[in-house]
Amino acid sequence: MAASGFTDLREKLKSMTPHRDDYKPKVSDYSNGRKRKYHDSEEDYSDYEEQREVEAQKVQDGIRQVNIFSSVDCAHIEAKIDDVVSKAEKGLYREHTVDRAPLRNKYFFGEGYTYGAQLEKRGPGQERLYSKGEVDDIPDWVHELVIKKLVESRVIPEGFVNSAVINDYQPGGCIVSHVDPIHIFERPIVSVSFFSDSALCFGCKFQFKPIRVSEPVLFLPVRRGSVTVLSGYAADEITHCIRPQDIKERRAVIILRKTRSDAPRLETKALSATDPPAATPERPRILKPKRSHRKADPDAAHRPRVLEMDKEENRRSVILPEHRRKRGSSSENYWRRSHEASDSYDDTDDNANSARKVKMRRH
């Protein structure tokens, strides 16, 4: 080493990598609570933030919010929504009018369409309108209390709406990121919020088990009675969603849209001349089985499961005398089967059968 002019190996290594003198490790990979990903420098990260701000502005430009429904108007409309829920519980609507999911029920009027798990082949562009008449007509109160007021306020032109959907959310309910099918619906998309305040988020990504939602590009507060109109970039170029954490109380939204004249539709098979007049046309078997109509019970998974046989055995263990409980013959099936066995066998086998106990399996 002396020949090369270095008496210390550390000095030689330092001379071979002079650029490392200016290297400073990053103090933290976090900024404002967000983890940095795929950014090697402060310049790259600032570019990323700038792009998000530009996109957020594009989204904002495609959103219009107005307040035209008073508290009195909201209360009147909310009572009508409760009537819809009551009629659905009584089975008074057509099959495809009501679609149930955990913590969210959807009610189609005027036009309904297949989406999500109902599709045999999933993905954007696969949605289809139901055949005419497979969902109920738009209720008169929607025309009188909601659509008429939007037309008077010049939010939408008269005759624009032919599809009305009511989404009824329970606390913790959500709808995953999506774009309203462009091949199904014209723009704009109009929604009116009821029962409580919430928020609409744009540009989120969902992950499940457990459910997690990424930071939105734009967070849009949505107040009770407010009208939100989406068009342009906000409607077509970025997804929107409702996150579980933004539904703290029951919330309902009425979505008003117009279907495209060339929107694809599930067609029914025409009746042949030999079919009876009362026969119902068979719809193509494209859809998967409908979801269960049972209401979601978030606490059910945490309750201990008690079998009916356990309930019976526990009940009899309390009412039977002490000496019979010790024999372990408290099951009703034991007494019934022992009696039947004694009648069907010869006297020589009575002792063996009387001592036999029927063991109950717990599955």
Automatic annotation (TrEMBL):
Co-factor requirement: Fe(2+)
Keyword check for Hydrolase: no
Enzyme Commission number: 1.14.11.53
Cell compartments where the protein resides: Nucleus speckle
Keywords noted in UniProt: Dioxygenase, Disulfide bond, Iron, Metal-binding, Nucleus, Oxidoreductase
Extent of Basic and acidic residues compositional bias: 8-27, 295-316
A Pfam family the protein falls into: 2OG-FeII_Oxy_2
Family: Belongs to the alkB family.
Keyword Kinase: no
The Alpha-ketoglutarate-dependent dioxygenase AlkB-like domain, residue ranges: 100-247
Protein name: RNA demethylase ALKBH5
Catalytic activity: an N(6)-methyladenosine in mRNA + 2-oxoglutarate + O2 = an adenosine in mRNA + formaldehyde + succinate + CO2
Chain residue ranges for the region called Disordered: 1-49, 266-363
InterPro entries: AlkB-like, AlkB-like_sf, ALKBH5
SUPFAM superfamilies, per the entry: Clavaminate synthase-like
